[in-house]
Design brief:
The structure holds two protein chains of two kinds.
Chain A (H helix, E strand, L loop, with lengths): L9 H9 L3 H12 L3 H17 L6 E7 L5 H14 L4 E7 L8 E3 L1 H4 L9 E7 L11 H11 L2 E7 L3 H7 L4 E6 L5 H8 L7 E4 L6 H15 L11 E3 L8 H14 L3 H31 L3 H10 L4 H13 L7
Parallel strand pairs in A: 1-5, 1-6, 2-4, 2-5, 6-7, 7-8
Helix pairs in contact in A: 1-2, 1-3, 2-6, 4-10, 8-9, 11-12, 11-13
Chain B lengths: L11 E3 L1 E2 L4 H13 L5 E3 L3 H5 L22 H7 L9 E4 L5 H14 L8 E4 L17 H18 L3 E2 L2 E3 L1 H5 L4 H22 L7 H7 L1 E4 L5 H21 L13 E4 L12 H12 L10 E3 L12 H17 L13 H23 L3 H6 L2 H19 L33 H15 L2 H17 L3 H11 L3 H12 L19 H17 L4 E5 L8 H13 L2 E4 L6 H10 L4 E6 L4 H14 L7 E5 L3 H9 L4 E3 L6 H15 L7
Parallel strand pairs in B: 1-10, 2-3, 3-4, 4-5, 5-6, 7-8, 8-9, 9-10, 11-12, 11-13, 13-14, 14-15
The chains are: A alpha/beta, B alpha/beta.
Chain lengths: 331, 665
């Protein structure tokens, strides 16, 4: 069988990624996407090197989600422009649905994120969800690690209302929910407590006028009954990607939230938590809750995972092997 | 009264033409007029249509290709040299930059000593359809509608015999529209524009009927000529009703459905291209047979359009078809042949009902502008076109020489040193750029700056754009400068691609299942699903091919990255790298494939991504195809390649070859 097309050693690749070299970044993302066992082994070594270097500790991982048509991509484009003016380098992972029939996908978000082609400070990678991982691509977390090593801001964009916000909010520093004016969905979800409350709510298309203002006030009211954790009060913002209004306020709110997450060990602990969540979720997808129970239950497993310093593929594979063994042994 | 005096006057006969330079096109126009053509139809090149000067980086390879380059008043003057504008009826296929080209036309008339109020002709000036087909839009829909209405309100008062807008259903049919969709979307567009004119407050209420009376249409006629005749009768009835009921036009003359025609290009074939002659003649019948729904102006494509650019002789042949019908046959001696026919009446009624239902769906969404912005209309068109392609593939829709009766003797028409098409002078672009630089150096810069400043103010404060544009034309402003000021004021737009339509269904054909298996298996062997980046480089906006490959590719299991039209070579190369594409598929129909491929290959080299193979589809002459293949392009697809399953299998095998895997049968 074909060898993985890697022209650099995994250590060289990790160094090149941290220098922000585009060809290396593309190669690293291809490697993480490659599910052949021999590629996975190289990927594991590569990620271990990357995580040991810990350069990703300074950057910010943002999840942007919301219903289709809310204008997430155009809002992302407006934020990219602003971040570039502030001299920040930006990486984007845009997740689109796959066809359940053919496995094929149309990845069209780049269209609305058109940036200057010659700007080395922006890198966009599209991902198809491939019918797994609750509508979030299973590659999204490993790829985030690569992006975090190379960029100041990394944005993950997904479509969804409901379950998917929960997934993404467990894997990002800051989750931003984009609401569509006039659509009551998000308000209903908030009221029912189905929607895990994101860190920032933004009503896009404020240029629509009254209908946008109504949604804004409904969200504010609904949120009043929802939680807010000790040192962060969830802001409800208004913006228009096309008119270019409210973008600075949104960017400022995002960076305010990033600041309270702290740096160094504090942030590192958060990130290890996301990784543990990723492994938990993949195991759940493959083995169900019974599998998790066999590993000692969710909270014990998460605890154990955050204390280890193996790469995520190694952790995941070790646990898989345990579950694949016949019999009823517990880990 | 003599026998001949009873005949109706023939329609205006034109040929859509222009190429290389203003001077070369002027020679062509004067030759065509001497052959009996009765009006002019100007084809502009893509930089002129999309608002770039000939020396702009995006214009590379496109200057003078699909039409004439017009950078400034000097070019426009040369284009109409020795053609007195007070005696000419000129149709200009121009949209996003329509106010600018009309301004140049007015300024040239002034220089010729012609009173602009005497000018006759048409500016296409229908940007809304550009978002759906053809793709030469620049600004977002809001400002585009404003420019359209500014031109309309200006000409109604100042150039009363001008047709300020030609609402186009032509290009909708090219993008796949059914007759019902053509009717619905063209009339919804006309409504959106007329409402905007009314709401702009630029026209007093008592002059509004005159505006309605100046609206004309540009229609397509396909090979199903009975249905097409009925479509045009339906257009007439629906327009009459709309003008009366919605806009209260009482004068019947001002409610008449006035239209020009170019017959269908979509159905012209590259295989056995001589068959296109009878297709064109039959399609012409559709728009002439019924006197009450007869075209005011006709232009016919040449038989060899699917091969490349037509030569003067090919265009002469197209003109002679019109002349034979109008002058030799007895068609113009009779009244309407179909009035009172129950068959025709029933078909017309069916089309009207279908169109009214679709118009209501558009209205529910807030109107045509909103239905375009949401991607609804584009998706509907892509769906229709996908259906058409599937029917051709399955043989349900017969195309002689393409999916049946494909055996042929060798054609004497496509031999010869030119392979039966025209070659554009490769020097033309360089000469145009040199002349442009010279023009800029010789003009009064302070006059130019002042004129542009006034344009900027008008764009911002909502004044009619025409007077200051005419002042710009006189002052020596260039096409790129005029467009750039408005780009800064209005921003640029990227239209929805419409490819996000539902899948064909669970059960594909056996051939489709086979392709899916090849795609899946190869993805597995390479460790990840196959990724295809579809790129439309350059200024060409004809996106049918790219859209159909995108939809089919998704259905076959590829992950498709497609960002729409008008991308730079550098953008495409970098996107291919960022997205980890296994293959880049380019689509180019403007004839600039050699330059664009060269540019993309050099960009790929620059960023270290030469390992991604490249294929191309488009109207690509055989000689050029050979040249592309010898320069490393892996495959060249042309309109001859109608079996998309074969194209998909070829793509899989190119990826396999590139990754050292053996090919699949």
């Amino acid at each position: 069988m074909e060898q993985p097309a890697l022209t650099l050693s995994h250590a060289q690749l990790a160094d090149a990624v941290q220098r922000g070299e585009r060809a290396a970044l593309a190669q690293a993302l291809n490697l993480l996407d490659d599910r052949r066992p021999q590629s996975r082994a190289i990927a594991a070594a590569f990620l271990r090197k990357l995580q040991n270097d810990q350069s990703s500790i300074r950057s910010h991982l943002i999840g942007m989600t919301g219903p289709p048509g809310a204008g997430k991509s155009t809002l992302t484009a407006a934020l990219i422009d602003l971040w570039r003016q502030r001299n920040l380098r930006v990486g984007v992972l845009a997740v689109d649905p796959s066809s359940p029939i053919s496995g094929g996908a149309l990845l069209g978000d780049r269209l609305r994120m058109k940036t200057s082609a010659d700007d080395d400070g922006v890198f966009i990678r599209s991902l198809a969800c491939r019918g797994e991982f609750g509508g979030l691509s299973a590659e999204v977390w490993p790829m985030s690690l690569v992006m975090l090593a190379a960029f100041d801001v990394v944005m993950i964009e997904t479509v969804g209302v409901g379950q998917r916000e929960i997934d993404i909010s467990r894997m990002c520093d800051t989750t931003c929910f984009v609401a569509q004016p006039g659509s009551g969905d998000s308000v209903q979800f908030l009221k029912a407590g189905i929607l895990e409350v994101p860190h920032i709510l933004v009503v896009n298309k404020e240029d629509m006028g009254a209908v946008a203002r109504r949604t804004l006030s409904e969200l504010g009211t609904a949120l009043g009954r929802a939680h807010s954790d000790g040192n962060w009060e969830v802001p409800v913002l208004s913006a228009s990607a096309t008119a270019g209004t409210g973008i600075e306020e949104l960017a400022d709110a995002l960076s305010r939230h990033r600041k309270i997450l702290g740096a160094g060990d504090q942030l590192q602990a958060h990130r290890q938590g996301y990784q543990a969540q990723w492994i938990l979720k993949r195991l759940q997808d493959e083995f169900g809750s019974h599998g998790i129970a066999r590993l000692g239950g969710e909270s014990a497993l998460l605890q154990q995972l955050t204390e280890q310093s193996l790469s995520l593929f190694e952790q995941h594979e070790t646990l898989r092997q345990i579950l694949l063994q016949p019999g009823d042994q517990h880990a | 009264m003599s026998e001949t005096a009873k005949r109706d006057r023939p329609w205006l006969m034109r040929t859509y033409s222009g190429h290389s330079s203003a001077r070369a096109s002027n020679e062509l126009y004067r030759m065509n007029l001497s052959k009996g053509q009765t009006g002019l139809s100007v084809a502009f090149d893509l930089p002129t249509q999309t608002g770039y000067d000939s020396d702009h980086p995006l214009a590379r390879g496109e200057v003078g290709k699909v039409g004439v380059p017009i950078d400034h008043i000097g070019d426009m003057e040369a284009l109409f040299d020795k053609i007195p504008l007070d005696q000419m009826n000129t149709s200009m296929t121009i949209n996003a930059t329509a106010p600018w080209l009309l301004a140049l036309y007015v300024a040239v008339a002034e220089r010729q000593g012609v009173d602009p109020s005497q000018l006759q002709g048409t500016t296409q000036n229908d940007v809304l359809k550009e978002y759906l087909s053809r793709g030469t839009y620049i600004y977002p829909p809001g400002p585009s509608v404003r420019l359209t209405t500014d031109l309309i309100t200006y000409t109604v008062e100042n150039i009363p015999k001008w047709n300020p807008t030609n609402i186009c259903s032509y290009h909708l049919q090219e993008a796949g529209a059914t007759p019902t969709q053509e009717l619905a979307y063209a009339l919804s567009t006309a409504t959106a524009i007329l409402d905007a004119v009314r709401d702009s407050g630029q026209v007093p209420a008592d002059r509004f009927a005159a505006v309605v009376g100046r609206i004309s249409f540009f229609v397509n006629a396909g090979i199903r000529f009975v249905e097409e005749t009925c479509k045009l009768r339906a257009f007439g009835a629906m327009w009459n009703k709309l003008a009366e009921e919605r806009y209260g036009v009482s004068d019947e003359k001002q409610r008449r459905f006035r239209y020009g025609v170019q017959v269908n290009s979509l159905g012209l074939t590259e295989s056995q291209p001589e068959n296109n002659v009878q297709r064109i003649v039959l399609e012409m019948l559709a728009v002439t047979l019924s006197k009450n729904a007869r075209a005011r102006a006709i232009q016919l494509p040449a038989w060899n359009e699917a091969l490349g650019l037509p030569r003067p002789w090919d265009q002469q042949w197209a003109l002679r078809m019109q002349q034979v019908l109008a002058l030799e046959t007895d068609l113009l001696e009779y009244g309407d042949l179909f009035d009172g026919s129950p068959v025709v009446e029933a078909k017309v009624q069916e089309l009207i009902e279908g169109a009214e239902a679709e118009i209501a769906r558009v209205a529910e969404q807030g109107g045509m502008v909103q239905a375009i912005e949401s991607g609804y209309v584009k998706r509907e068109l892509v769906k229709s076109h996908t259906r058409r392609m599937r029917d051709i593939e399955s043989g349900e829709l017969k195309i002689v020489g393409v999916n049946c009766f494909t055996q042929t003797a060798e054609s004497p028409l496509t031999g010869g040193s030119d392979s039966g098409i025209m070659k554009v002078d490769v020097q033309a672009e360089r000469e145009q750029i040199a002349a442009l630089k010279d023009f800029r150096a010789r003009r009064d810069q302070s006059g130019v700056d002042a004129a542009l400043e006034n344009l900027r103010k008008a764009a911002a404060n909502g004044d009619n754009i025409m007077p200051c544009s005419i002042a710009c034309a006189r002052a020596g402003v260039t096409t790129g400068e005029w467009s750039e000021v408005l780009r800064e004021a209005f921003g640029e737009y990227r239209a929805p691609t419409g490819i996000d339509i539902a899948m064909a269904g669970q059960t594909g054909s056996a051939a489709m299942d086979e392709v899916r298996e090849k795609v899946r298996r190869t993805g597995e062997e390479l460790g990840r699903p196959l990724r295809l980046l579809i790129g439309k480089p350059g200024l060409d906006g004809h996106s049918n091919g790219a859209e159909q490959i995108a939809v089919k590719g998704r259905d076959a299991g590829f992950e498709i990255v497609y960002e729409g039209i008008r991308l730079t070579p550098s953008h495409i190369a970098r996107a291919a790298q960022e997205e980890g594409a296994h293959l880049i598929g380019l689509s180019v129909l403007s004839g600039s494939h050699l330059e664009l491929v060269e540019d993309i290959q050099s960009e790929l080299k620059k960023i270290g991504a030469t390992d991604v193979p490249l294929i191309i589809g488009g109207i690509i002459p055989e000689d050029d195809a050979q040249q592309l293949l010898s320069h490393g392009v892996q495959a060249v697809f042309t309109p001859k390649d109608v079996d998309m399953n074969v194209i998909m299998t070829d793509m899989v095998n190119i990826i396999r070859r590139n990754n050292g895997l053996e090919e699949l049968a």
